[in-house]
Amino acid sequence: MIDETVAEIRAMQTHSTSVVAIKATRSLAELLDRDYITVDEFERDLEHNAGVLRRSNPSHAALHNAIREVERSVVGEATTVEGAKQRLTDTIERVVEDVETSKAAAASNAAERIADGETLLVHDYSTTVLESIETAAMSGKHLTVYVTEARPRTLGRKTARALAAMDRVDAHMVVDGAMGYALRDCDRVLLGITCITGGTYYNRVGTFPLVVTARELGIPVTAVGSGAKRIEEFRFENEFRDAVEVMREPVENVTIENPSYDATPVGMIDVVITDNGVEEL
């Protein structure tokens, strides 16, 4: 379970950072089925596997925080193997509930800021952004939502399908290069959060030019996500994916770079919404 989860995270098969944190945390339940002679043996195995999970995606603050919380809550807190396993069981459930609750609270806070009749632009795929829009629509608000295609993985298509299934939401999709065209009709840009640390906001590649274009056009930008994604003393590491996602046929004398994330000064964001509340920047 742990090895499969690590492979899935490294391949970025799960697109939501909150879902990644939950899957990684739950995968540690595999240790409950293993036999240990001493508590020290159990704790060493827990620390080893927790480290493997954290390193599977060093860009995900939510993953880092969730796994660290499991370690802090279990290691050194029990005197028997049975007690340590029970503590791991309880901690996994608590951490997963915390991630889910904070995500839902952030989405609820964002939904309150969305006005009836607004036109939004969203980028890539964020379950928290989708929950924010769905919550607003379920409260009776009618919305128009543009979504960028989000190349090279085109995750915007997944977002568009989710939006199309929502009542009172009029969904539109545009290619990334048409963001300026779409923004002229928008009241707000609504983005997810991968990580905020050291005065920098990290999110899927394409976020930085979108934010710059929105600021030039006077369109406010809101970022929404769990408060666990704001973390100090965290070294964000960008991921560079396979060049085949950009160009299937290799080209001689051309280096293809395929970064996963953009770095944007957090001061360029107008509002950051988490489960802890709303911060005007």
Automatic annotation (TrEMBL):
Q: Which UniProt keywords apply?
A: Initiation factor, Protein biosynthesis
Q: Which Pfam families match?
A: IF-2B
Any single GO molecular-function term of the entry would be: guanyl-nucleotide exchange factor activity
The record's InterPro entries line, in alphabetical order, gives: eIF2B_alpha/beta/delta, IF-2B-related, IF_2B-like_C, M1Pi_N, NagB/RpiA_transferase-like
Say if the entry is tagged with keyword Iron-sulfur.
Answer: no
| SUPFAM superfamilies for this protein | NagB/RpiA/CoA transferase-like
Statement: the UniProt record of this protein carries the keyword Protein biosynthesis: yes
What protein family does this chain belong to? Belongs to the eIF-2B alpha/beta/delta subunits family.
Record protein name field: Translation initiation factor eIF-2B subunit delta
